[in-house]
Design brief:
4-stranded mixed sheet
């Protein structure tokens, strides 16, 4: 194993790829993590593919970067995080992080729009904008990979299982309804679209999760999502149902 040559008590040796055409991001992350943990880093650059392959062969490893502390090989960036007691999420591990990010930014944008328009964040329009902007963000996540979304959507959506093309139409319908609701325009289009897809979605999710007790991933933030199907997707659909009823009622002066 490489010997530490730095003099500090907390010392580490790092081998990472630094080439003209490739700078390993995990090598930079490893160096940054070590320094934040108070280590002085002896930073060795692997400047060619041949040098990298020779290093891997010598130490019997398949990847770089590699960190050594007190002569002991810790491993790559994830192994280093584990070594310092930090969380390392598996590729298939479920997470609500994408949804939290979407709703948080949508909420702040709604407040910003309200302030810019009315000089106050405490407006009814801010609440409407929050839901409408959230719908737009969620639609963008689906539109990034419509094919992947439609495939995951088929696992639980009742209409898509009968009419496969609905999985391709859904993201565009959600985006259209969201944009029109942000503008407060063409309620006679946005409200029926939101009400239709929201109702079908809510029934489908409720059946899959709460009746059939199926453990599925949610397509609400696009194909390949690790968000579990359940409360989040149901909330998305209930928001669309609410807006599908609320917007025309307000337009007609009932509220």
């Amino acid at each position: 194993m490489p010997k530490d040559t730095v003099s500090d008590a907390k010392k580490a040796v790092l081998y990472r790829m630094v080439m003209e055409d490739h700078l390993c991001p995990y090598g930079l992350k490893s160096k940054d993590l070590l320094e934040r943990e108070g280590y002085e880093v002896e930073d060795h650059h692997l400047t060619s593919r041949a040098e990298t392959d020779a290093f891997k062969k010598e130490y019997g490893v398949e990847t770089t970067p590699q960190t050594f502390i007190s002569g002991e090989r810790i491993g790559g960036y994830d192994a280093l995080r584990k070594h310092f007691g930090q969380e390392v999420r598996g590729e298939d591990e479920t997470t609500y992080q994408p949804v939290i990010a979407i709703f948080s930014v949508a909420f702040l944008m709604a407040l910003g729009l309200s302030w810019a328009s009315f000089g106050s964040i405490f407006t009814l329009r801010a609440f409407e904008w929050f839901i409408a902007v959230s719908m737009c963000f969620l639609a963008v996540q689906k539109l990034k990979d419509v094919e992947g979304f439609s495939t995951m959507f088929l696992n639980y959506d009742l209409l898509a299982q009968r009419w496969v093309r609905y999985g391709y139409v859904y993201p565009f319908g959600e985006a259209l309804a969201g944009v029109l609701m942000v503008a407060g325009a063409l309620v006679w289009i946005s409200a029926p679209v939101a009400l239709l897809i929201g109702t079908i979605g809510a029934v489908s999710v409720f059946k899959a999760v709460y009746i059939d007790k199926r453990d599925l991933k949610c397509a609400c933030v696009g194909g390949g999502s690790n968000v579990p199907l359940g409360f989040v997707s149901l909330t998305e659909n209930l928001m669309m149902i609410f807006m599908g009823l609320w917007m025309p009622a307000r337009a007609l002066g009932w509220l």
